[in-house]
Predict the structure.
Amino acid sequence: METTVDLAKELIKFNTENPPADTRAISKFIGNLLENKSIKYKLLNNKKSVYLISEIGQGTKNIVLYAHSDVVVAGDIKKWSSNPYLPKIKSGRLYGRGSSDMKGGLAAAISAFIDLSEHKKELKGKLQLLICPEEEDYDSTKPLSKIIKRTNATACIMGEPHFDDIIIGEKGEIDVKLKAFGSSSHGSTPASGIDANVILDKFIHELKDEIIHLNKKINVRKEFRNFLKFSTIAISDEFALKGKQRENFISSNPAGNITINVGYYKSGRNFNIVPDEAEAHMIIMVPYGIDYTSITSFISNNSRKYGNKIKIVQMEGNNATLTDKSEKLVSSISNAYKFIKKKDPKLVFDTGSTDAVFYRKLNVPTVLYGPGYFFNAHTYNEYVSIKELDLSREIYKKTILNYLS
């Protein structure tokens, strides 16, 4: 079939920004690719978001190639060196929105799946392609959780971007949205009102103090603690951090500690009015060694002290998950990586969280490996290495043949 980079270019041309995660056109395009190879598939619609499922082979083993077809918003087009939806090749790189996260991984997965469909006799089990229209993380109310349960997977490879590492575990995640309420007054007499910003800021700082306290209580065995420290260093290398910034990053140990990021904060109606409402949306990443409910319980209990001045609009979460190094999937992809790249892979615990949680909750071994780069995913002038696109395709194929041997 066409090269992996040619397919990636075509996929990038589809604007699948999330929101709104309209993946009808790209799903039809992928479906036509499979149909042209006489491969059966199903499309499952959830409004404008479309899931695609295809399966080849037969047997009790069922390894899944998973990818998502949505991308984050492109942002300010003027900050791109070229149109983010008109892919551009330069110096061995393919540029465009989603090239790294994860149209590159999607192209490699589709290519490997089609390649192996032409060699079904070599598959001693089933191979499934599952394409999700939006990353859903831990939200079990959405279709992905139900779809995964029905597939009866025994292993999964996700094409998420992470440079040259194989991700075998990842932190848990808590998604929290808070709202604070005060009372407005004229900006020249702030003491006559109650500033909602002050209330919300105080609550967030109390939460941060609690996280510092909880980080001191994290307790994991020495071997695993060393693994988390190694993972932090590997991620620092991926971001190419230098000097003091690298030292601070490693010292903070994001793979082994709870982290919090208040990514969205909004308040006020006018510069001369004391804000009577403020809201914040934050993400808290939870490592091994602590239950996420210890954090959500603090948020719930502390909010009660504020009476009706603090409201929890949204709070959902999950714990850290891990695929054991002894699993056949891990040896299958490690051996494939070594065979294709002629070097030993690094097994890493991720600082983020993905849909892998759905599989690991069902005790399905899951690894993340893709051609993209975590450090430039979601950024302007996002790119993926053309060489890595082809290597990922071959690593996927070799891994699947190893696993289904």
Notes: The first strand starts at residue 41 and ends at 46. Residues 4-170+321-403 form a domain with the Aminopeptidase fold (CATH 3.40.630.10). The mean pLDDT is 95. The CA atoms of residues 43 and 397 lie 24 Å apart.
